[in-house]
Amino acid sequence: PNESYAIVTHWSVICHTTLTTPKPPKERLMSMAKTPCRLVHDCGACGTRGAPVKCPCNASHYCNAACQRAAFKMHKAFCTHWLVKDIGKKSSELALLQAQIGHSYDVLNPVQIIEVVTKEDALAAQHRQCGDLLSQAIAPLAEYHLDAEYHLKLALKIYRRLEDLARREGFTNTLAGVDRSVITLMDLGHLYRNRMRLANATTMYEEALDRMRDTIAYYGSTPERQVLLTFILTTTGGNYNDQHDPDQGPNTKTSLARDLIEEALAITRVLNAKANELSLDPSKLADQQECTADVLLALTGVYINLEMFVEARNTLQEALDLSILHDNHYRRKKEPKQELTGTTSAPPKCSDIGSAKLAECHSRMSELCKEQAMSIKRNIQESSSIYAPGSTVMIHSLQNQPEYNQLQGVVIQIAADKRVCVRMNEDMQELRFKPENVRPLVALDEQRRLIYITLQDLADEGMACGKENLRIQLKLTGVKHVNTATAYFNLGSDYMATYRPAETREAVAMITKAERIMRRVAGDDDPRLLRILMGLSTAQRALARFEKEDGVLSAAPCWWPASSRQQDEAFMSKMFVPLHRAIALDGSPYLSADFVEQVLRMHGLFYFMSVSSDPVDLETFVEISCNELQRMKEEANYGAELAPTRASVAEKEKAAVAEEAPIIVE
Predict the structure, then answer these.
(1) Of 152, 210, 406, 591, whose CB neighbour count within 10 A is largest?
(2) What does the pLDDT look like over 182-215, one tens digit per residue?
(3) Is the separation of the CB atoms in 529 and 505 below 8 Å?
C-alpha cells in the first residue's frame, strides 16, 4: 500500500507537468531526437558547474572519478546502467532456479512456487524501476524512451504471469503484485502520453482501469486500492481531455473525461469522510486532502474545455482551500519551537509540497480567467453580426403576410438561398424570410458595458494569480528553474492581453527573463523555449507599434487590440456596408442618426451620442466613429491627458531648445 501510494503521488506530479507542457509538432520532435542537447551539467557530488565526467546512464555528471565514487551510494538506486546489470544478474539466477526445479508451476510444491514467484517479482520490480527512470530521461535522447518501453513491457509481462498464478494458486495479492501490473500499465500510458502517442496511452489507461475494477471485485476493496482507482480515473480522464480540439468545441471524449473525473472525486469525498470519522493521523489526512486537490484540478481543466466557468471556478476554489490547509499543516510541523524568552527564529519556508500545489492552483486560476475572457469575446463577436444564430430580430415590410410585421423572433440559421430562418416568439413557428424583411435588434449598450467591466476584472484577477504563482515559484525553485521560466512567461502573456503600452512593456521584460532562464536550463530545440521565443517576438512587435507609430492604442483595453487611425477607418467602412444593406431599404445612401448611435454603442462605443439628427452617409459615419474611438483611446490609456504623438513630442523639443529649458516628454 505504501508503495502504491508513493507511486500515485509521484505520477500525479509528473502527469501535471506533462499537461502543462506545450505540445510541439511531430517534425519538431523528430528534429529534437536528432539534435544533441547543449546543456551544462553540475557535479552530482560537489555541485561544481561544468562537470566533464559522465555516468554511463547519462543522468549524472561528475568532476572526476573521486566525486563519482563519493556519490555512488546515493546514485546507485537511480542509475539505469547499474539496474540493467542487476536485471541481468537476477535473470540468470531465475533461469538457474527454474532449471533446477523445473519450468512448470504445476509440478512445484508451495515452497518452490513461493521462491520462484519472489524471484520473478523482484525481477519485474527491477524492470519497472528501470523503465521509470529511462522514461524520465532527457527528451532529445529518444532511444531512452524505446528502452523504457522495452523494460516496462517486460515487467508487465511478468506481472501478468504472476497475476494468473496468484488466482490459480490462491496466493495473496501482495505476493503476486496484482496492483503492480496496474501501476506498470499506468507507467506505459504515461510514457506514450509524454511522447504524444495518445491512442496508445488511451489503450493502456483503459486496460489499467478495467484491471483495477476486476481486482477490486475479485480481491475486495481497500482504501489503498480506492486511492489507486482514483488516480487511474483522474489520469484517464485527463488523457481524454488532452484530445480536446478548441476549434471543434466539446466532444464525446471531453464528456467522458468529465464522467471519469467526477467519479474519482466522489470516491475521494467518501475516503475523506471515512478519514474524518476514524480521526486519522493529521499527516495522512493532509495527504488525502492533497489527492482530492489533484482530482479537483483535473476536473477544473475539463470544465474549462466545456466552458462551464462557474463550475470550474467553484472547483478550483475548493482545490485552493484544500491546498492552503495542506500547506498550513506542514508549515506547523516545521515551525521552530519557542524559546524561553518568548522570541522565535526567522519564519520557516512553506513546505515544498503545499506551496507547489498552491502555485499550481494560482496558475490554473490564471488560465481560467484567460479562457473565460476569450469565451466572452467570442460571444460578443458572434452577437455583433447582423444575422448571427441566436440573435433577436424583428420582422417588417411583409406584403403577403402582414400579420408577422413588428413581431420578434430568434435567428436559427441562414439557408442556402440566403433566406433567414427565424423561430417566432409568439407561436414558436419556424419561418424563412428575405434579408430585407428582417431587422436585427442589437443588444443594449448597458449590457455590453457590464461585459467590458467583467473582462477588465478577469484580466486583473489573472495578473494577480500570475504574480502569486511567480512569487511561490521563486521561493520554491529559485530563479534558474524551468517552472520559474514558465511562470514569467505566463505572467507576461497576461500583461500582453491588456493591450496597454505600459503592460506591454512589462510583458516584454517578463518574457525576456523567461527566455534567459530557459536557455540556461533547456536545449536550443526545447519546445518550451520555442514557445517563449514566439511569445517574445509577438510582444516586441506590439511594443514597437506603441513606441514608433502614431495613435496606436486600444480604445477598450482587455477587449480590443491596439489599432491605428487607418485601421479604425477601414473597420468602420467595412461595418457600414452590411448595415446599409440591411436597414436602408429605400436605396438611400444614408442611415438614420438614431440607428447609427444604437449600432455604435452596441459595438462598444458606449458613450457615443449623435450631435445631429441628420442622416449619415459612409464618409460621415467613418469620421464620427473614428473620432469617438480616438477619444476613448485617450481616456482609457492616459485619462484626462492627451495621448502624446511623435509630432507633439517634436514640437515640445523645438520649443524647449528655443527657450533653453529642460525637455518634458509625456
Answers:
(1) 152
(2) 888 888 888 888 777 888 889 999 999 998 898 8
(3) no
